[in-house]
Specification:
Layout lengths: L1 H12 L15 H25 L3 E6 L4 E5 L6 H16 L4 E6 L22 E6 L3 E4 L14 E8 L5 E7 L1 H21 L6 H36 L6 E6 L4 H11 L5 E7 L5 E6 L2 H14 L3 E5 L2 E6 L5 H22 L1
Parallel strand pairs: 8-9
Antiparallel strand pairs: 1-2, 2-7, 3-4, 4-5, 6-7, 9-10, 10-12, 11-12
Helix pairs in contact: 2-3, 5-6
């Protein structure tokens, strides 16, 4: 209890405990053991990759989901990855011990240990992590005591790294089991959705993709035809309105521009929108150049979006399509004020 009180006092003072003090420590063992497996796995992969192919490790990253080793080589073949994975797992099955030693900085053995070299300000003993008969490496990290604790290592393949380097992606220990569990859950879900076995999933998805592409193409053609019909219907009516407003949820930018092209914008002001009626979408304001230049930025502001325009067209993205009514009122007011001025000029 005394030590607990002392620790709380140090915490309140934001001061480090004095050397030799006894404190209570809470350790997240699952996280610690995961880091031990990944770190020892990295040492093993690094050592075997160097022995088998001469690939030097220049850095590595312990990620939350997967880990990456940067190899100083421009290429690593799939065959080399397979051979490397097979070899490291053979070492795991051999139950090779992993030990930690501390050497004096001037010990000649230090020169034989794999490392990047000691910092200039280093003081005290040198910590060496050894995988018996495989690797000796300067390291201050936590490690397993035997390669069997790694359970298994899975190399997920390679990715392009920095110039003339390759990133080797891997999982070790419990991460392999979690990855299999996640993959199996995904497989079960796909089996239920696609109504076929795992071996047929890829072909089923390819068929679905082909169907979707065909549907999208047909839908696009129909939208183009619809845009032309809408424009012609408007133009065929006697006494055309000075303002044309239209919203089409499933439309796109091409749909709006086809309507604008078909109707013509020399005399008519068009306000066209596509997308969700109340949330985000696209808009197009088209019409006489001076009117569009004046009204475009205001329309974008009302719709809480951004846009740009030239030569009588102003288009962009909107986040508040629910304010289309306010835009329509703005445009109607603008047209109403323009009429008296036009009549005076006549």
């Amino acid at each position: 209890m005394v030590f607990q009180c002392q620790r709380d006092s140090w915490a309140r003072q934001r001061a480090a405990p004095p050397p030799g003090a006894r404190v209570l420590l809470s350790l997240d063992w699952e996280r610690r053991f995961d880091h031990m497996q990944q770190h020892s796995g990295q040492h093993l992969i690094t050592a075997i990759a160097d022995q088998m192919f001469g690939f030097k490790t220049t850095s590595w990253e312990l990620g939350r989901q997967r880990s990456v080793i940067e190899l100083d080589t421009p290429t690593v073949t799939a065959e080399q990855v397979e051979a490397l994975e097979r070899s490291v797992n053979e070492k795991i099955r051999e139950r090779i011990p992993v030990t930690v030693r501390e050497l004096a900085a001037d010990d000649p053995e230090v020169e034989t240990v794999r490392s990047r070299g000691l910092p200039d300000d280093h003081a005290g003993p040198v910590r060496v992590v050894s995988i018996e008969g495989i690797d000796d490496n300067m390291c201050c990290g936590t490690h397993v005591s035997n390669l069997s604790d790694l359970q298994v290592i899975k190399l997920l393949g390679t990715e392009k790294g920095k110039k003339n380097k390759v990133n080797l992606v891997f999982l070790a220990g419990n991460r392999v089991l979690k990855s299999i569990e996640q993959s199996h859950s995904t497989e079960k879900a796909l089996t239920s959705l696609l109504k076929n076995g795992p071996g047929e999933h890829v072909d089923a998805v390819k068929r679905l993709q082909s169907s979707v592409k065909l549907l999208q193409k047909n839908n696009l053609n129909l939208l183009r035809d619809l845009a032309v019909l809408i424009a012609r219907d408007f133009k065929s009516k006697p006494g055309q309105s000075e303002l044309f407003v239209l919203h089409r949820k499933e439309g796109d930018s091409e749909f709006m521009n086809i309507i604008a092209n078909e109707i013509g914008t020399e005399e008519t002001l068009l306000f066209l929108t596509v997308g969700d009626e109340k949330e985000a979408g696209l808009f197009l304001l088209a019409g006489p150049v001076e009117a569009v230049e004046k009204l475009g930025p205001r329309v974008a502001e009302l719709l809480e979006g951004k846009g740009a325009g030239k030569r009588g067209r102003f288009q962009g993205k909107a986040t508040k399509m629910s304010r289309r009514g306010e835009v329509q009122t703005l445009l109607q007011d603008f047209i109403s004020h323009q009429r008296p001025e036009a009549e005076k000029k006549e």
